[in-house]
Amino acid sequence: MPRPLSICLAKWCAIGGLLAALMCAASAAKADPIACDTPLIVVVAASPDLAARVCRVAAEADAMLSALGLRHSRPVTIEVTPDLGVSAAGCVAYFHTGGAVLTILPPDCLEGEDGRLGPFPKLAAGPLFESLVIHELAHAYVEDSAAPDSLPRLVHEYIAYAAQLDYLSKPDRDGILRRSKADLPVDLAGFSEALLNFAPDRFAAMAWLHLRAQPKPADMVQALLDGTARFEIWDE
Ligand SMILES: [Zn+2]
């Protein structure tokens, strides 16, 4: 049975992808795949410059996620494209479970309405784009690190959002923390599907605050992966 879809950011996914595809037609051209220096990561993008930018972010993601004890043993392709390959709804980025493919809208598409209406509407297209690379790669690393079909969506998104916010500059992250009104202390009981669906900015801020407050963040990530730490909803 497939794991629940790790669709990125519910509000974004409720907005029409067709509009994004029309707006971003200029970005549709694809160059040949480029292999990043980071092993097992390949980028498909409209230009070598854009691919190089994604590879640079991917290297940072690899360092960050490896420090959290997450594994990367399977090939991942990051495709920067106005067509995310999601039939049911429009997203700005998408992790295709089991397929080892991440699709992300190009920065020029994120300048449009889709980007502004996401959970982080004040974030400029550049940092939003790069942080989406981090977020989606986190999903890939989490899936790689977990036992098959064992993880609920909350664990995936907790780690992905925490990594995404950690990548952002302090001013960008502080803005999200301030607007979401998230503050310490945060504990796992405060996370829920409802929070993720209806206040993803607050979910993201809480995830970052909670993970950052851990004496050893990698231990918390491992505990979530192996089930020794649980969100309250699991016990219902
Ligand atoms: Zn996600």
What does this 3D model show about the protein?
The structure is a single chain. The protein has 236 residues and is an alpha/beta fold. The protein has a single domain, classed as Neutral Protease, domain 2 (Orthogonal Bundle), CATH 1.10.390. A 5-stranded mixed beta sheet has the order 1-2-3-5-4, with helices on one face. Helix 7 packs across helix 10 and helix 8 crosses helix 10. The N terminus is likely disordered. The site of zinc ion has 6 residues, from helix 6 and helix 7.
Defining key terms:
alpha/beta; disordered N terminus; 236 residues; 11 helices; binds zinc ion; single chain
Q: How many DSSP E strands?
A: 5
Radius of gyration: 17 Å
Bound molecules: zinc ion
Beta-strand content estimate: 5-15%
Mean of residue pLDDT values: 83
The SSE order reads HHEEHEEEHHHHHHHH
Q: Which strands sit side by side, in order, in the main sheet? A: 1-2-3-5-4
**Can you give the helix content as a percent range?**
40-55%
Biggest pleated-sheet summary:
5 strands, mixed
CATH topological fold name? Neutral Protease, domain 2
Give the overall shape, derived from the CA principal axes.
globular
Q: CATH first level: which class?
A: Mainly Alpha
How is the topology of this model organized?
Layout: H1 10-13, H2 17-23, E1 34-35, E2 41-44, H3 48-67, E3 76-80, E4 93-96, E5 101-104, H4 107-110, H5 113-116, H6 125-145, H7 153-167, H8 170-180, H9 193-198, H10 200-212, H11 217-226
Parallel strand pairs: 2-3, 3-5
Antiparallel strand pairs: 1-2, 4-5
Helix pairs in contact: 3-6, 6-7, 7-10, 8-10
Bound molecules: zinc ion.
